[in-house]
Amino acid sequence: MISALDIYGPFGLRLIWGGLQTCLGDSFSRGVWHRQRGRCQARVMDDHRMPRKLPTRLLNICISSFCKLHGLDKAEAVLIDGIRLGVLPNVVTYNTLVAAYCRFVGIDAGYSVVHRMQVAGIRPNVITYNSLLAGASRQGQASISLDLFEEMLKLGISPNLCSYNTLMHCFFRFGKPDEAYRVFHDIILSGLRPDPTSFNTLINGLCKNGYVDNALMLYRNLKRHQCQLELVTYNILIDGMCKVGRLKTARWILHELGTSGYVPDAITYTTIMKCCFRLRKFEEASEIFSEMKSRGYTFDGFAYCTVMGAFVKTGELRRAVDVAKAMLKSGIKLDIVFYNTLMNIYCKEGKVDAAFALLNEIEEKGLECNDYSYTISINGLCKARNIEGAQRHLQYLCS
DNA sequence: TTAGGGTTAG
């Protein structure tokens, strides 16, 4: 039987393992974090089960796992440990850190890792830049995205489909549909083949920017060319149609979804049902609900809050309260969206005290208020003509 | 072992 010592020499893995143990605390002995289906799980490994892989790869797995758990400091500690033990980081190591810093700290922090990798003599590649592009997109820096794209080209790094898709998403997200559409054309001009991500980004971007008919046209073209669409593509389109009140078209897409071999999911039904409620088509909503039930889907918190919100929007506060009661009765875990919606109902009914009591309940339950909670509460005070109270509340929130 | 997008609630 091969032991870790045979594979990695006298220290290597054992010490990295030790470093990991230090980072993870005492609860795991020689534990390594493995990513499985997007989640990180701890697994204890014995010497004879240790993977026969290069130490740098192991180092990268450890760093990646910590990054995924938001443990950037621990990831850095593992890197230092690795270097100390002579395990040299490679481009994957730094790319992992660039992506994590961009996601959890910001584009500047990501860029500083790029400098570190250059100092270490490692050249950034297309993945490095794609992470930076995604970071710029998340921060709403469309101009930085373009600069990054040019910088990439200057460095002789060819953008790939992921780069184009990210840039397209960035433009759509920040209300620049013309530029986004140009990026889509650039994909074709560069000889790349758009993938489902490209089409989903494009259709969603068109819908969100008010071009639902163009999105529909694109969908028809894709169907004509027998492109394989994903369930989520249909859901995007259905949502786009529902948002502009085109329930009939949404239902037609629902039908097409079925004939394409897909089964609508809870999101599909919730989206259409919300539209029915908004349009006050209660009977139709009820039919959708029955169909949903017959397929075995039950209402989750998202569905309850969707319907509640729809009633609030149509001003039917009593109905909204009924849904809130049903959700309470169902035993589903109450989240901040539920509380915000209920707070909104109370404010609209002029029961500002009751709304503020909910703020305390949120805190007691260990939930965190968000922007909506504050906007709703301040708005409630203003609507009740308690401007002084609103100012005091705002000052309290800012303090 | 590293990168992208997309669907429902307030």
Automatic annotation (TrEMBL):
Segments annotated as PPR repeats: 90-124, 125-159, 160-194, 195-229, 230-264, 265-299, 300-334, 335-369
UniProt keyword list: Repeat
The keyword Heme is assigned to this record: no
NCBIfam families the record matches: PPR
Family: Belongs to the PPR family. P subfamily.
Entry-linked PANTHER family: OS03G0856100 PROTEIN, PENTACOTRIPEPTIDE-REPEAT REGION OF PRORP DOMAIN-CONTAINING PROTEIN
Source organism of this protein record: Carnegiea gigantea
Protein name: Pentatricopeptide repeat-containing protein
Coiled-coil annotated residue ranges, if any: none
InterPro entries: PPR_rpt (IPR002885), TPR-like_helical_dom_sf (IPR011990)
